[in-house]
Amino acid sequence: MINVRFAPSPTGELHLGGARTALFNWLYANHTGGKFFLRIEDTDKERSKQEYVDQICESMKWLGLDWDGPLVFQSQREKDYHNAVQKILKEGNAYRCFCSKDKLDEERKAADKERRIYRYGQTCQNMESAEEMDRLNRGESFTVRLKVPDGETSYTDHIYGPITVENSEIDDFIIARSDGSPTFNFVCVLDDNAMGITHVIRGEDHVPNTPKQIIIYRLFGFQEPEFAHLPMILGPDKKRLSKRHGAPGVQQFRDEGYLPDALLNYLVLLGWNPDTKQEIFSRENLVELFDIAQVQKKGAVFDEKKLHWVSGQHLFRLSNDEVLQHMEEVFPDWGSGADENYLLEVISSLKERVRSLSELKSLSSFYFEDPDTYEEKASRKRWKDESVNQSVAAYLSSLEGIHDWSEDKLELALRQTAEKLDLSSGKLIHPVRLALTGIGFGPSLFELMQILGKDTCIRRLKIALEKLPQNI
Ligand code: GLU
């Protein structure tokens, strides 16, 4: 049975890197019929906040990354951690270190000066028990350090392959601070063991922690999990993606009207592909195809353009009804007052032109309101002078006589007007579009006119004839 987990620290909202780690774990569990747990690593009491726990859970739910069993909080396991520290001390695999901060700083400085990597000098490793008792009785503060055994530590990473580290390169690292609180590597092992985690899938930044954790597994005699470290997500400058790159948290994608499945699809491509050309996947596809062995080692570059493309592809593949449903959830006020059929027509005309629900919302505004301004560049180009008013007025008068307000009829009338005036049809199509929408691009003009209806088109053309051209 496979058990994996996602273990965020609630010191900030869920960002793209975290979401991708969660996704790969979730996919692995679902692909293999295993379980996916969510553990909140809230031992840093100052920086951990309930509001971030809530945000992380909400983002996970929005993404549809549902987890098994109750949430696990490290803060509720303090007693177990304390007992484990006592046990490992008793077994002689850890020791109390009374070295002061000043002393350690001095050692560190000396190492820097001699240009060698600093490692703790193990001053307290072989302290006589009488001295230890004495210092304890005097109330001296101490940390607890792991006694790193001789030898080497090896494991095979699912993504990076075999990794071996000489234990002599590993410090006798602290497992409990002077206030008694246990450190990350120690609690991580205790939790993963207690939760029966079989595969640890996490960011590559944890590679240096893994040998330390394996040493702890071995000292406790715990069953070691397998490890898979995911490549970094990089910004366009090839540095680790961060807020500096303006990479938004997951909630912002939701608020901007991205579909959760589109974001998941984009995230999965940051480090994985199925070795085919396929790039657009449904959630079910992903569960079926995902294989941890196909995750690449190379850092994956966050590419906003690609995200937009993937997102647009997902929107395009939804039915109009499904898009409407999403719009109602994300923007409940969108198109209020308009009837459902009208909204479906609007969606159908714009669906393939937009990359997100919020773009659909903003681009569709002309379907609901008369334009109150005209895009400057478009009006300068398309409605240069009064001659345009004459040709648009001619089209307007032919429109007034049309009863069957259909795309074909509207197009025929336009072409006939243009012919009569000896103009190319573009000379009419562009100004009419500008008059109707206020902008210089959008769906096919005749489709647009059919959806808007006769009254609205005639009203808007009349208004535009009064307001345009605007640059004389
Ligand atoms: N809390 C750690 C982090 O946010 C997770 C470590 C792990 O997955 O083992 O990086």
Q: Look at the structure and give the mean pLDDT.
A: 95
- Extended strand count: 12
End-to-end gap: 76 Å
Oligomeric assembly: single chain
The geometry reads as elongated
For the largest beta sheet, what order do the strands appear in spatially? Answer: 1-2-3
| Uncertain segments | none
Keywords:
three-stranded parallel sheet; 47% helix; 20 helices; elongated; 472 residues; mainly alpha; binds glutamic acid; single chain
Topology:
Layout: E1 3-6, H1 16-32, E2 35-40, H2 50-63, E3 72-73, H3 78-90, E4 94-97, H4 101-113, H5 129-137, E5 143-146, E6 152-157, E7 161-166, E8 174-176, H6 184-194, E9 199-203, H7 209-220, E10 226-230, E11 233-234, H8 250-255, H9 260-268, H10 283-289, E12 300-301, H11 304-317, H12 320-330, H13 340-350, H14 357-363, H15 376-382, H16 386-400, H17 407-420, H18 426-437, H19 445-452, H20 454-467
Parallel strand pairs: 1-2, 2-3, 9-10, 11-12
Antiparallel strand pairs: 4-5, 5-8, 6-7
Helix pairs in contact: 1-10, 6-7, 9-11, 12-13, 16-17, 16-18, 16-20, 17-19
What would you say this structure looks like, in words?
The N and C termini lie far apart (76 Å). This protein has a three-stranded parallel β-sheet with strand order 1-2-3. A three-stranded antiparallel β-sheet has the order 4-5-8. Strands 6-7 form a two-stranded antiparallel sheet. It is elongated, with a radius of gyration of 32 Å. Helix 7 links the parallel strand 9 (199-203) and strand 10. It is 47% helix and 10% strand. Helix 6 packs across helix 7 (209-220). It is mainly alpha-helical and 472 residues long. The protein is built from 20 helices and twelve strands. The mean pLDDT is 95. It has helices at residues 16-32, 50-63, 78-90, 101-113, 129-137, 184-194, 209-220, 250-255, 260-268, 283-289, 304-317, 320-330, 340-350, 357-363, 376-382, 386-400, 407-420, 426-437, 445-452, 454-467; strands spanning 3-6, 35-40, 72-73, 94-97, 143-146, 152-157, 161-166, 174-176, 199-203, 226-230, 233-234, 300-301. The chain binds glutamic acid. Glutamic acid binds next to loops. Glutamic acid (GLU) binds next to loops.
